[in-house]
Amino acid sequence: MNRKNSFIHRLGLCFSIVLGQSFMAAPTYSQALSTDSIHREASLSEVTVTSVVGTKRKVAGKGRTASIEEHLLQLGNVSMVRRGNYAWEPVVNSMATERVSTTIDGMKIFYACTDKMDPVTSYVESGNLQRIRLDSGLDGNPQATGNIGGSIDLKLRKAGFDAKSHAYNATMGYEANGHLQVYGADAAFSTDKFYSNVGAFYRHADNYKAGGHEEVNFSQFQKVNAFLNLGWQPVENHIIEGTVIFDRATDVGYPALTMDVSDATGFISSLSYRREQLHGLFYRWETKAYYNHITHNMDDTQRPDVVIHMDMPGRSSTTGLYSLLQGSRANHQYQLNYDAYYNTLFADMTMYVKGAKPMYMLTWPDVGTLSQGLALTDDIQLAPHHTIHLSAKGAWQYRRINDDEGFRALSIYFPGMERTASDLTGRVALSYAYRYNGWKLAVGTGYGSRTPSVTEAYGYFLNNTFDRYDYIGNPHLKHERAFELNGSLAWASETVEASLEANAFFFQNYIIGTPDERLSPMTIGAEGVKVYCNLNNAQIVNAAAVVNWQFSDWLSWHNRLTYSYGKENTGARLPMIAPLTYQGALKLFWRNFESEAGVQAVARNSHYGSKYGETSMAGYAIWHFNIGGHFQIGTVGTDIHLGAENLFDRHYSTYSDWNHIPQKGRNIYFNLSFQL
Q1: CATH number of the domain residue 204 falls in
Q2: What does each C-alpha distance from 676 to 66, 166, 201, 608, 673 come to in angstroms?
Q3: Neighbours of 227 (CB within 10 A)
Q4: How many domains does the chain fold into?
Q5: For residue 629, what is the DSSP state?
Q6: Which residue numbers in the chain have pLDDT < 50?
Q7: pLDDT, position 23
Q8: Half-sphere exposure of 580 (CA within 13 A, CB side)
Q9: Disulfide: which of 102, 122, 219, 340 matches 85 by Cβ 3.0-4.6 Å?
Q10: So what's the pLDDT on residue 88?
């Protein structure tokens, strides 16, 4: 306990935050950094974000009743691993949680479930988000660490100063498939000295039905989310801000797994100071201190025919800070960021065998992680048509197994292992862009490393229902390293946007679980035991082609074709790599109305990771349609949207649906929102 307290003491907390945003913003995608071919930001407001062209009109969708996962799926480099109808795991550039950094307003948060049933994105709500920032590959945001695949930062909604004095929103949504109900309300208040955002959202869903009216048992969930964002400006250009988020999900079913979740609760808080209009090398300084605590309880009491009942709770606590300086000089726009955090992860399992004493086991042995990092970015305008973007970060990490029992258990399999470990990691990325007469050419490269996750280094007999193996961490793992190449070519006119983009990652010491036939599994029915190890090398390649036509002010056609490829040093295919996918949509605008008809067509997954338990998946085509409108009645704005997903009730699963659980069949949805 004294060691843990000393870790926290070494952090030395301060204050900070992000510039307040307007209460309502038009939903768009944009290239946020001109030199990065695949760095995007999406603004969230009333509708599902989507690419726009020509007249920049917005497109109908679920809006703020949509889940965070549905918003993320609108970003081109993102897909989802789905274990149920709730809390999908984001995948960026064909890489999952271990290789992706996810933050909320720059705050590091770590999930508390050994089965990744509670990704960071599950603890926020669309109504409290202003933007989603996606950085592709090794060019991460300043607070990101270990982001080989990319980084996601969820920017919270801030009313800001001198905005509309008061604004109110009420939202409700209903989906027929699974009887999903969404209710939300929020309010914003603003003066030249003070602002606040406060709101709450509630979601409830029963079991949904797959195509052909097949009920998917244990796919229900309910959650409540409440948030408060405050800002105070006691003196001009000196700003103090605070955030509190409470999120609780209960009775969450996971049809792809053998257990459900009785309770997943997150508490997220921050206090920050920001100084504007500085003189000299830097014009802005912001510093934020934060604390968050996550608890997660897996439960199998609602499942029939349970051979051995188990309790599997987990918890995660993180205390941290970051301090960001922004400046400009001549043709340079630069940022300097220091961040630090201390996190503890603890999970255990109790098995209740009939006629015997309960069996207890630690699955995460109370691992404490102290991390500090220094990041620098610089955007350089070489000439009117030539720009360079440079980013780099170095980080130091210290870990300790705090639980004696957990340390002794792992030592049986790794004699002589150390209780503590310290590591240096880093990343550097460089990109160049040329723009001329509607054309843009961008090329980039990067190199970086990451330390093993707590699961990869210290996990203890964690059952993976995907390949039916128990997994043991390996404290002797080397750093995983990756070299990235990326490029894009784009052309745009008043009516057409077209682009080609690709990236390739070449790994050394790629971390993945491999069978160890000397060990016996603890889970009934498990195929065996896998231990995490380093493969000599692996490769992942992603490519996309996009063509958008704006036929007129009221009609546009959007098309995107993507392909991904992944293999390791033996030639075996890596799992969870997307097959060839086409997405197309016709979008219609007329006065205050908007509609969309589209399709997603996916080829058969013929190149799959059979070595890692993956099987082939059939191709499919899924159609959708929606229509919506905005009406102003006096001072009250009203948005109405109606839509249908999987129009022809196709029964299908995607490559990333855990254990091939089927997707929703035909789903009719309706949402209504009011703004005052």
Answers
A1: 2.40.170.20
A2: 21, 8, 18, 51, 10
A3: 23
A4: 1
A5: E
A6: 1-38, 45-60
A7: 30
A8: 5
A9: 219
A10: 96
